[in-house]
Amino acid sequence: MSHLFDLTGKTAVAFGGNSVLGSSIAAGLAEHGAQVAIVGRNLQKAEDVANAISGKGGSAKAFQADVSSRDSLIRAASEIEAWAGGWDILLNAPGKNSTTPFFELEMEEWDDIMNVNAKGVVLVCQIFAKKMIEQQRKGSIINISSVSSTTPLSRVFTYSASKAALNSMTQFLAREFAPDGIRVNAIIPGFFPAEQNRKILNPERIDSIMKHTPMNRFGSPEELQGAAVWLASDKASSFVTGTLIRVDGGFGSMTI
After folding, report:
1. N or C: less crowded end of the chain, CB within 10 Å?
2. Which of 9-23, 93-107, 173-187, 200-214 is the least confident region?
3. Its pTM surpasses 0.85
């Protein structure tokens, strides 16, 4: 049944593909045959990821873009289209976090996080999904959410709110794009030590997380690859859209 997960001939555009989790997912897509555009604000980091994928026999190229800027995304879309001709898979994996207490939160910080985690996904889909429809490319959009989207976590108010918005967008866009053959789903990762959460992972917090995670460990970035490849494949998940897939070690199943 390996053909179900064969992405040969597909092009994936990975926003936030230069992050810890995004780069692992991008590598997984490449290992299954997709050529991958690694898109990030930091071009050097994107190039490092693309080079690592290429060094293992995959096909990848780095592109620079700010997901909160329409002009930046339009430019990136043109560059990626010139490189690949179009795309079949969108990965929305950019993320920004903060530990600012609620009563100290300034609207500049709120806007900054929302611009990346929520507005960014809207702009990406407006530009890149529209191009998919125009080219009559059926495909898959994969959004990276968070366990805090369904169970708000302490210390990350704005991040939690932005990821809850992402879940709603995922389901709305699944309905919006279904007639055009584009599926939209979200992966809800549990706790994977990455840039966004290392700053709050003190011993007390880690102990609390483990008590609420039945598997009693953190996830590793590679453990997101399977779900992403499955959702990217129009053979393996052809009737799957509007879903929120948990990869969280059981965190979402806990009550007390």
Report:
1. C
2. 200-214
3. yes
